[in-house]
Design a protein that fits this description.
Elements (H helix, E strand, L loop, with lengths): L8 H6 L5 E6 L4 H9 L4 E5 L9 H13 L2 E5 L5 H10 L3 E4 L5 H11 L25 H11 L1 E6 L2 H5 L1 H5 L6 E4 L1 H7 L11 H14 L5 E5 L5 H10 L3 E6 H23 L1
Parallel strand pairs: 1-2, 1-8, 2-3, 3-4, 4-5, 5-6, 6-7, 7-8
């Protein structure tokens, strides 16, 4: 299937009982993005919140690399920042992930920034990639509608405030998925951090999120850690349907541990 005819992330998310797989990208490496795409992942979660990446030419190269690789790129911006949300979408990214959404007012601002009139108040310019740089055939009505249709909006549930306001947040029209952040949720409640989400309160909040999202047709994205079959099966059985199977940093550390193991074995043999 050529990239021009591949199934978009939005289309995949609309399929009943779809289980989608992604990976976190922290390093800012274009080859890593292209390699990840070659493994038929459904999406990439490219982070600017906790990395040196900004909303600049380097990030734009990663978005272009994702297009070369035929994998959809979701960009985590630094927060509810209108200019960042708009620029990421104008780069041609499939969508945005917004950290620390605590209330419905923030969620409304996100939709206003990411959707054109009809759904929001996104500012526009035809001299950008998402508008094909105003090339022949461009018209504003078609562009605005297609952008509203294609873009994926993912707030993060990573604080106790989110869950205090969960119904009001999820009732804001335009949410495609919610990413549950177990580490920051635990920090917000001063709980021990465990990405396996074994703490009863953390597991309860994830179950609550799933129960609230499912009837609204909203997907639930979670980190799958450790990124193995057992953990993935457990999360899928709970109702999570967008699984992040590790990150470029995780897999680099795994390779380093493999080198340590090989060194230790050879040192024993040579002793």
């Amino acid at each position: 299937m050529t990239q021009n005819h591949r199934i978009s992330l939005k289309e995949k998310m609309r399929r009943e009982n779809a289980l989608l797989y992604g990976m976190n990208i922290y390093s800012g490496s274009s080859p890593v993005v292209e390699i990840a795409g070659s493994y038929d992942l459904d999406f990439l979660f490219i982070d600017t919140e906790h990395t040196a990446l900004g909303i600049d030419e380097r990030l734009e190269r990663l978005v272009l690399s994702s297009k070369v690789a035929g994998v959809d790129a979701l960009i985590r911006v630094s927060g509810v920042v209108e200019a960042e949300i708009r620029k990421v979408l104008e780069f041609g990214a499939t969508g945005v992930i917004i950290p620390r959404v605590d209330n419905a007012d923030q969620m409304k601002r996100i939709i206003q920034a990411s959707k054109f009139p009809g759904q929001g108040r996104r500012g526009g310019d035809s001299s950008v990639r998402s508008a094909s740089y105003g090339a022949p055939g461009f018209d504003w009505k078609t562009y605005c509608q297609s952008e509203n249709d294609r873009t994926v909006i993912v707030p993060m549930a990573e604080s106790y405030e989110f869950f205090e306001n969960i119904d009001e947040i999820l009732d804001v029209d335009g949410i495609d998925a919610v990413h549950f952040g177990p580490a920051d949720y635990s920090l917000s409640r001063n709980l021990p951090i465990d990405y396996k989400m074994r703490h009863p309160e953390v597991r309860e909040k994830l179950a609550l999120l799933i129960s609230k999202c499912r009837p609204r047709g909203i997907r639930v994205m979670v980190p799958c850690f450790p990124p193995d079959q057992e953990q993935a099966a457990e999360l899928a059985a709970m109702g999570c349907d967008m699984l992040l199977i590790g990150s470029d940093i995780y897999w680099m550390n795994a390779a380093g541990k493999n080198v340590e193991s090989i060194r230790a074995d050879l040192d024993r043999l040579r002793a």
